[in-house]
UniProtKB/TrEMBL annotation:
The chain crosses the membrane at residues 28-46, 53-77, 89-110. It comes from Gelidibacter gilvus. This is Phage holin family protein. It comes from the Bacteria. PANTHER family: SLR0284 PROTEIN. InterPro entries: Phage_holin_4_2. Keywords: Membrane, Transmembrane, Transmembrane helix.
Length: 115
Protein backbone atom coordinates (compact mmCIF):
# COMPACT_ATOMS: atom_id res chain seq x y z
CA UNK A 1 0.00 0.00 0.00
CA UNK A 2 2.86 2.36 0.84
CA UNK A 3 4.42 1.74 -2.59
CA UNK A 4 1.17 2.63 -4.36
CA UNK A 5 0.87 5.86 -2.38
CA UNK A 6 4.48 6.80 -3.19
CA UNK A 7 3.90 6.08 -6.89
CA UNK A 8 0.80 8.28 -6.86
CA UNK A 9 2.70 11.07 -5.08
CA UNK A 10 5.43 10.84 -7.71
CA UNK A 11 2.80 10.97 -10.46
CA UNK A 12 1.25 14.10 -8.94
CA UNK A 13 4.71 15.69 -8.67
CA UNK A 14 5.42 14.86 -12.32
CA UNK A 15 2.14 16.44 -13.45
CA UNK A 16 2.79 19.58 -11.39
CA UNK A 17 6.32 19.94 -12.75
CA UNK A 18 5.22 19.28 -16.33
CA UNK A 19 2.67 22.10 -16.04
CA UNK A 20 5.22 24.58 -14.70
CA UNK A 21 8.48 23.61 -16.39
CA UNK A 22 8.92 24.42 -20.08
CA UNK A 23 10.46 21.56 -22.03
CA UNK A 24 8.70 18.79 -20.08
CA UNK A 25 5.46 17.32 -21.39
CA UNK A 26 3.24 14.60 -19.93
CA UNK A 27 0.20 13.39 -21.88
CA UNK A 28 -1.98 12.94 -18.79
CA UNK A 29 -2.20 11.52 -15.30
CA UNK A 30 -2.16 7.95 -16.61
CA UNK A 31 1.13 8.66 -18.37
CA UNK A 32 2.44 10.20 -15.16
CA UNK A 33 1.57 7.04 -13.20
CA UNK A 34 3.30 4.90 -15.82
CA UNK A 35 6.28 7.26 -15.69
CA UNK A 36 6.42 6.86 -11.90
CA UNK A 37 6.54 3.09 -12.34
CA UNK A 38 9.23 3.35 -15.03
CA UNK A 39 11.30 5.71 -12.87
CA UNK A 40 10.99 3.36 -9.90
CA UNK A 41 12.15 0.46 -12.07
CA UNK A 42 15.08 2.43 -13.51
CA UNK A 43 16.08 3.67 -10.06
CA UNK A 44 16.03 0.13 -8.71
CA UNK A 45 17.80 -1.65 -11.60
CA UNK A 46 19.82 0.73 -13.78
CA UNK A 47 20.87 3.45 -11.32
CA UNK A 48 22.94 1.19 -8.99
CA UNK A 49 24.83 -0.15 -12.00
CA UNK A 50 25.57 3.39 -13.23
CA UNK A 51 26.66 4.47 -9.76
CA UNK A 52 29.12 1.59 -9.49
CA UNK A 53 30.49 2.15 -12.99
CA UNK A 54 31.00 5.87 -12.40
CA UNK A 55 32.27 5.65 -8.84
CA UNK A 56 35.71 7.21 -9.55
CA UNK A 57 34.23 10.30 -11.21
CA UNK A 58 31.57 10.52 -8.49
CA UNK A 59 34.26 10.55 -5.82
CA UNK A 60 36.30 13.07 -7.80
CA UNK A 61 33.31 15.44 -8.08
CA UNK A 62 32.33 14.88 -4.43
CA UNK A 63 29.04 13.27 -5.42
CA UNK A 64 27.86 15.91 -7.88
CA UNK A 65 28.06 13.42 -10.74
CA UNK A 66 25.04 11.69 -9.21
CA UNK A 67 22.98 14.62 -10.53
CA UNK A 68 24.12 13.69 -14.03
CA UNK A 69 23.11 10.08 -13.40
CA UNK A 70 19.65 11.26 -12.29
CA UNK A 71 19.31 13.31 -15.48
CA UNK A 72 20.32 10.26 -17.52
CA UNK A 73 17.63 8.22 -15.77
CA UNK A 74 15.06 10.87 -16.73
CA UNK A 75 16.29 10.80 -20.34
CA UNK A 76 16.08 6.98 -20.37
CA UNK A 77 12.49 7.20 -19.13
CA UNK A 78 11.82 9.66 -21.95
CA UNK A 79 13.09 7.11 -24.48
CA UNK A 80 11.00 4.28 -22.99
CA UNK A 81 7.72 6.19 -22.78
CA UNK A 82 5.59 7.73 -25.48
CA UNK A 83 3.52 10.05 -23.28
CA UNK A 84 6.51 11.76 -21.66
CA UNK A 85 8.88 14.15 -23.39
CA UNK A 86 11.92 16.06 -22.13
CA UNK A 87 13.53 18.52 -24.53
CA UNK A 88 17.17 18.11 -23.48
CA UNK A 89 19.81 17.25 -20.91
CA UNK A 90 19.66 20.51 -18.94
CA UNK A 91 15.88 20.33 -18.72
CA UNK A 92 16.19 16.72 -17.53
CA UNK A 93 18.72 17.81 -14.90
CA UNK A 94 16.45 20.59 -13.65
CA UNK A 95 13.43 18.26 -13.75
CA UNK A 96 15.24 15.60 -11.72
CA UNK A 97 16.32 18.17 -9.12
CA UNK A 98 12.84 19.64 -8.78
CA UNK A 99 11.21 16.20 -8.77
CA UNK A 100 13.49 15.02 -5.96
CA UNK A 101 12.78 18.15 -3.94
CA UNK A 102 9.02 18.01 -4.48
CA UNK A 103 8.90 14.28 -3.68
CA UNK A 104 10.81 14.79 -0.44
CA UNK A 105 8.42 17.56 0.63
CA UNK A 106 5.34 15.48 -0.23
CA UNK A 107 6.76 12.34 1.42
CA UNK A 108 7.50 14.31 4.59
CA UNK A 109 3.90 15.58 4.64
CA UNK A 110 2.72 11.99 4.25
CA UNK A 111 4.99 10.89 7.10
CA UNK A 112 3.63 13.64 9.39
CA UNK A 113 0.09 12.40 8.78
CA UNK A 114 1.03 8.91 9.97
CA UNK A 115 2.28 10.17 13.34
Amino acid sequence: MNLIIKLLITAVAVVVLAKGLPGVEVAGFTSAVILAIVLAFLDAIIKPILVILTLPITILTLGLFLLVINACIILLADKFMGGFNVSGFWVALLFSLLLSFLESVLYSLLDKDKR
